[in-house]
């Protein structure tokens, strides 16, 4: 049994899956997501244009099509033997679920900011080479205009604009400092084994923030250990290696990053949950949830450098938050007490007993009401 990973070097979420599949030691082949591949494979199988897509060749005629990195990783975790990237213990598992969400859906802000403000031409060439590898560089460039306009235009919706540049860079540098300090003690977030949280952070940190030249230079200068960790997660020397720290320990540097989640991303998620509730009431018969539910005011930045800006209300991250709250709801007794204590100490006590307005699921590779 083997897998095909359809994606690209330039793609944030492809890097997350590539690093994971390599560590998990599963046989896979990577196929570049050219225009032709979008047309022939991705659209027929998934229904919309997105990468990465994984096909698990499980012996069935078409194989199993997987999209969304979280679902891809969960599928492989179920299907393949060997150590897991999900810690078994309560605090580490809770922290790992939270930090996957933080990496995937909040660190995408600096990832998109640095790419489209500092590395635009590089990214444009990379998009061109991905879409039409057979064309000349000039033709590739011209053919990539549309995709570049789409992705670079999407930074507005993430809250990236001239008013927020400085706050985004300040928050990113504070994040780098916390992770850099932690990596002086440990190889990965929770010890010597990479976790789902390492892969969540790998997405933005690899394809954009390390691989794009201008931001790569910044990372190597400010946080060389983070650069080395990024390379280690993306291209592990040894598969299936390492262990999580004993006694369910959450190292201090990881606690610092969890506090960044609670202070920065969580308020936006809570506001998004309110918008989802209003949408649900206004559309009682609709199952598929739009990718964007209008705009709201959101605070972006760290510490003293926080600015309020317009940002799209993006409901998808609530599906990842639901994984966190489902895990919390499954706990009892001492385990629940340990989880709640951790939430209090990072400033996320509001998640204790928190429920989304209704359950979310993914249907036909899109977000939907369960
Ligand atoms: N949550 C998704 C995000 C995938 C995603 O946003 N992929 C980007 C490329 S790295 C894309 O194809 N975006 C197209 C779009 O958002 O319309 C996942 O984990 O797979």
Give structural attributes.
single chain; 15 helices; 370 residues; four-stranded mixed sheet; Glutaredoxin; two-stranded antiparallel ribbon; globular; 12% strand; alpha+beta; binds glutathione
Topology overview:
Blueprint: E1 2-7, H1 12-24, E2 28-32, H2 35-46, E3 53-57, E4 64-67, H3 69-79, H4 90-105, H5 108-118, H6 120-131, H7 137-143, H8 145-153, H9 165-183, H10 196-210, H11 213-222, H12 224-234, H13 252-282, E5 295-302, E6 305-312, H14 316-329, H15 333-346, E7 360-363, E8 366-369
Helix pairs in contact: 1-3, 1-10, 4-10, 4-13, 4-14, 5-10, 6-7, 6-8, 9-12, 9-13, 10-12, 11-12
The protein binds glutathione.
**What is the chain-wise order of helices and strands?**
EHEHEEHHHHHHHHHHHEEHHEE
Category by helix and strand content: alpha+beta
What's the architecture of the domain at 2-79, going by CATH? 3-Layer(aba) Sandwich
Count of beta strands: 8
Bound small-molecule species? glutathione
CATH fold node name of the domain at 2-79: Glutaredoxin
Span between termini: 31 Å
In round numbers, the mean pLDDT is 98
Shape: globular
Low-confidence stretches: none
| Number of helical stretches of at least 4 residues | 15
Can you say what the CATH homologous superfamily of the domain at 2-79 is? Answer: Glutaredoxin
Instruction: Evaluate the radius of gyration.
Output: 20 Å
Strand content: 5-15%
In the sheet with the most strands, the strands line up as: 2-1-3-4
Largest sheet: 4 strands, mixed
């Amino acid at each position: 049994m083997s897998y095909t990973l359809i994606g690209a070097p330039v793609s944030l979420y492809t890097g997350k899956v590539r690093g994971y599949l390599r560590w998990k030691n599963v046989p896979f082949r990577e196929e570049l997501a050219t225009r032709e591949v979008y047309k022939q494979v991705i659209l027929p199988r998934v229904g919309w244009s997105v990468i990465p897509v994984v096909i698990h060749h499980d012996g069935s005629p078409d194989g199993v099509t997987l999209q969304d990195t979280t679902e891809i990783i969960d599928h492989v975790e179920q299907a393949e033997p060997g150590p897991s990237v999900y810690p078994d213990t309560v605090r580490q598992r809770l922290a790992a679920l939270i930090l996957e969400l933080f990496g995937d859906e909040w660190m995408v802000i600096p990832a998109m900011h640095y790419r489209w403000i500092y590395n635009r031409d590089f990214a444009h060439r990379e998009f061109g080479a991905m879409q039409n590898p057979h064309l000349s560089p000039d033709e590739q460039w011209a053919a990539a205009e549309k995709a570049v306009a789409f992705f670079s235009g999407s930074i507005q919706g993430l809250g990236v604009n001239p008013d927020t540049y400085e706050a985004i860079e300040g928050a990113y540098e504070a994040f780098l400092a916390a992770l850099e300090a932690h990596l002086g003690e440990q190889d990965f977030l929770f010890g010597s084994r990479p976790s789902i949280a390492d892969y969540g952070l790998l997405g933005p940190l690899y394809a954009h923030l390390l691989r794009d030249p201008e931001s790569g230079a910044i990372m190597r200068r400010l946080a060389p250990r983070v650069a080395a960790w990024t390379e280690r997660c993306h291209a592990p020397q040894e598969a299936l290696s390492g262990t999580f720290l004993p006694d369910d320990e959450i190292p201090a540097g990881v606690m610092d990053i969890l506090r960044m989640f609670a202070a920065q991303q969580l308020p936006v998620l809570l506001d998004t949950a309110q918008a989802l509730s209003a949408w649900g009431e206004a559309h009682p018969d609709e199952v598929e949830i739009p990718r964007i539910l209008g705009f709201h005011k959101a605070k972006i930045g760290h510490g003293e450098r926080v600015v309020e800006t317009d940002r799209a209300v993006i409901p998808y991250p609530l599906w990842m938050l639901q994984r966190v709250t489902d895990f919390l709801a499954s706990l009892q007794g001492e385990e629940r007490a340990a989880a709640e204590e951790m939430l209090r100490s990072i400033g996320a006590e509001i998640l204790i007993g928190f429920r989304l307005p209704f359950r979310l699921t993914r249907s036909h590779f899109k977000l939907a009401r369960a």
